[in-house]
UniProtKB/TrEMBL annotation:
Residues 38-115 form the DUF7344 domain. This is DUF7344 domain-containing protein. Residues 8-20 have a biased composition (Polar residues). Pfam families: DUF7344 (PF24035). InterPro entries: DUF7344 (IPR055768). Residues 1-30 are annotated as: Disordered. It comes from Natronosalvus rutilus.
Length: 134
């Protein structure tokens, strides 16, 4: 099963044109179920994508870390916010950002510590919104 969404060009969305390199990344206007399942299987990735969609522009990695840690922080748990931020940072750098970059949803500039959304991220907006309403 695939999800059909309107085609967006790099110029109309204002985002970069990095092509998806993963074989499951699909073409310009569809998302394969396997891709959606893989990308959205993590709550942290889902939240990261929602923040990138809301911002609509490049974000500093440390800003994303702060937002994700704040979203996940539970005052009753014995993990400090500092420890949680460290865990989020490690998981973003080692797992989530590389996977999302592999699927062409963002470009992660490690040197400048920037995350830049691509036009493919727009394809996920309707999927994320429909999941929120479910």
């Amino acid at each position: 099963m695939t999800f059909r969404v309107p085609t967006k060009t790099a110029n109309s969305s204002g985002r970069g044109t990095t092509a998806a390199t993963h074989p499951g990344a699909g073409n310009r206007d569809t998302l394969a179920r396997t891709e959606v399942t893989r990308v959205l299987s993590s709550d942290r990735r889902r939240t990261l994508l929602e923040h990138l969609l809301d911002a609509g522009t490049a974000l500093d990695v440390h800003t994303l870390i702060g937002w994700l840690a704040d979203d996940e922080h539970e005052p009753t748990v014995e993990t400090s916010i500092h420890q949680l931020r460290q865990r989020v940072h490690v998981s973003l750098r080692r797992t989530h950002l590389p996977l999302l970059e592999e699927y062409g949803l963002l470009v992660y500039n490690q040197t400048e510590e920037l995350v830049v959304p691509t036009w493919r991220l727009d394809l996920y907006e309707s999927v994320l919104e429909s999941d929120e309403q479910s």
